[in-house]
Request: fold
Amino acid sequence: MFSSNTLSRFQSVETPFYYYDLQLLQQTLTACKAAADKYDFHVHYAMKANFNEKVIQKVQQTGFGADCVSGNEVKKAIEIGFSPDKVVFAGVGKSDREIVEALEQNIFCFNVESIQELEVINDLAAKCGKKARVAIRINPNVDAYTHANITTGLEENKFGVNQWDLPACAEVLKKSANLDLTGIHFHIGSQITNLNAFKSLCVKVNEIKAWFEERGFVLHVLNVGGGLGVDYHTTEETPIADFEAYFQIFDEFLERKSGQEIHFELGRALVAHSGSLISRVLYVKNGIKKHFLVLDAGMTELMRPALYQAYHKIENISRPGAQTSEDLKYDIVGPICESTDCFGKEVEMPESFRGDLIAIRTAGAYGEVMASKYNLREQIVSVYSGS
Ligand SMILES: Cc1ncc(COP(=O)(O)O)c(C=O)c1O
Ligand SMILES: N[C@@H](CCCC[NH3+])C(=O)O
Reply:
């Protein structure tokens, strides 16, 4: 729950807005860093999860690298202070301009997602008089047991080089004078809560690593991506993900040679719980079959429920401690001209009124950054505490 100071501060800010608990963010980053350091693991923060400046500044100060998925993310990371040798650039559709700009910045490495991309990077690096460090992103065909829309490591997904293309990939690597192979890269999906998925990933990485090493390639880096999920139901009870249990799996199941670095690309688990979307009830519509709370925030501010039917805990923070009843359930909707503009259906809430403040919790990852201008909505603003 929010402190009374925070609640009274909320009264003076125009809704909707994102609220970030920077203290919780710092505790989360510190916990992750300590757990990673224990195994000498390297974490690159997946900037796509949240590139709010205050958030990424804290991430940068913790000593993590940055995992970027567009030229603008690469630029932003460097601008904020991430050292280029801690910046990696992934994505299935890097444009020539984005590649050249990243080459000019001397980033640590491109996570390359197709053989054609490998050839293009080699040509562009030659033109720039550079050697591009590359890791091959491989599609391991490992089930992440997560929502179908956020699974990335199955053969039907567009991401990475398929295993049957590895011989051709090795040929291109051997003949490309302007490529320098740093290692191999994997990412099987997001919001993964069944840690067995990561065990299966380790088994696959061991196999593929051996394949490369048998052919004389030296792999300095094994990058196993991100994907660690958070519990959206227990925002207060488990505000910090179990990083120790997560890293321990890789320590136990991943084979590494001495000197070989293990890299991670965590996004959601680092930032999700520290963000909430704060909104106000504009209207209460009581019907026979349904009661609706119409908020001033919509799918334009938080798209996850509309996009993946994602669950977020919704609280009426104007009525702390007020009783809920089985008989009073609301559909919590926004003002956007779409029927999917709904944050939750049949949500048990205390009786709510126009003007009440509503918090949509665990919205720090893939929330603000996925906001859109649809319906010519206002630019979303952010409020911070605990800095
Ligand atoms: C290549 C890559 N790395 C890292 C991430 C971060 O994932 P998460 O936020 O689930 O940790 C993603 C997003 O799914 C991704 O596509
Ligand atoms: N945007 C997604 C996750 C996709 C992660 C990026 N590959 C979410 O909101 O859960």
